[in-house]
Protein 1
Amino acid sequence: MDAFLASRVLAKDDDWADSIARAVGMQTAADDVVRAVVQQARQNGATWQVIGDALGVSRQAAFQRYGKPIDPRTGEPMNTTPLPGVAELAASVIADLAAGHWARVTERLDPTMRDGLSEDALAAAWAQLVGLSGAFEGRGAPEVARAGDLTITNTPLAFEAGDYTARISFRDDHTIAGLHILEGQKS
């Protein structure tokens, strides 16, 4: 924000809390205007590519923020709200993997995953990562998105000699429906 605009927002008596609240209100109003213009653009035939370009993001990012996906199974709008607390769930799964708590991870798997992924197989997969890239060093903040019936987290992982992304998909009952370690960090 430039100095002129900031001076219009700031209270004369330096009431910073009030000034910050007004600035947040302006930001919220601006977000509402952008949302309305995007909806109008879509109604008038603008593609997500055009909208994404105007917003300075990919067409997928524009759709994920402003789109209203329709469930092909029901014809109704899809739930696009991520599962609450899912970032913490993903972090705890990664902590269990790093600590070698294979049983804790497999207990969280949904029935289909549990049938296909044993503790031994999970341990072997983690050992392969360590063999390729050295010891686990840490994780970054997860990115979270809702896709259909799942909430998907993408968490950057750092090993001594390589970067990966842990993609963990959660069902609404907090069970794990998918667990993938992808080479490189996804943004």
Protein 2
Amino acid sequence: MRDLSHNLGVVQAVAPAVLTATNTSAAIDLFGFESAMVVVNTGAIAGAGNFTAKLQESNTTTSGDFTDVAAGDLIGTLPAVLLASSVAKQSYIGNKRYLRTVITLNSGTSIAASAVIIKGNARSRPVA
């Protein structure tokens, strides 16, 4: 039996922090993997903070080339509004090389949050 850690790639998109503005992660390279999933982890919300999360995709790392991932390339849904002290996940089955997360401040003050991209279906194993 193989352990799971050698079959997945894990990249921190958003380091755990108190976010007081919209946060757009750096481009995350999916080269060598056939699928991905975002996991958004939240903590406390202050000042009735209203935040949403989404995935964007691109074939380049140029910021202006990223677009929201089409619903047909996603499995599952992220909540309409991120809730305090919760975990949300969504799978990506599209074919673009790069992903990034966007956690958007819609109103309010802040949210403690982080996001991780888990890359799966590696073409070459074990994954470092």
Protein 3
Amino acid sequence: MAVQNTTPVKGTWSLPKLDVSQFVVLALLVGLDIVLGKLTVGTNVLKISFVFVAMSLIAKWYGPVWTMMIATILDVVGATIINPSGTFFLGFTLSAITAGLIYALFYYNQVHVSWLRILGAVGLVTLVVNAGMNTLWLFIMYSQVHTWDSFVTLLMPRLIKSIMMYPIQVIVTYAFLNNAAVKQATKKIFNK
């Protein structure tokens, strides 16, 4: 088992300069995120997608500042250019930034991302962002009656979906972030 880096990394909150290959990889991951975002199943209220895969890798390699910037750009571009028929709402941008921050705080500079870190990150994103914040934004945008009962009615199917997706997302994230190809790419691209 690989040794984890558990000490705070100097420069975690700085915006590290990227060389050409690191910037190109970041651009490819942004493209992957866009493609995965288009491959969703469900409605505006209840969607299933694997966008978390690209964002998890961005968080692992580029840290909190880059991840939050990319999450912001992806959300704005996704709502205004890629899917212009959708409604842009600043709350979803805040949700994307929060999810990116959570992933980066748990994954950044980890040679081997442990099950515990993935369980924590995916759990926080699932509960705080997906079930909590995003349900609140949908409630504000689409609910005709703003009562607790109507919020719970909107929350329940989203919470059930989140509970069902949680173990799948944990397993996919662990397999993806800790596979040999990602570790080899980390060494080659980032000299780590």
Protein 4
Amino acid sequence: MELSGPVAGPINLISTFFPLSDVGYVAEEYFLSGTAGSYRLTGSAGDDGEWETVPDGVAPFTTRLVVYRPVEGYRGTAVVEWG
């Protein structure tokens, strides 16, 4: 996998309604790229989520990561939010 960034330019997200700099934080955007594997069912897809599969190919992907972090120093808990 390859991580690139921080990406230049503003980040416009609904999740922040105030300037992060007012509370000593900064938002940075990164891109994570790599190759993802896909799988094919070999039977039925039951309700239990335990399905028999076999590898069925690969494809390139790129996803966006937005990181909110303190400008200086850090002590505490990191939170990851999947969206």
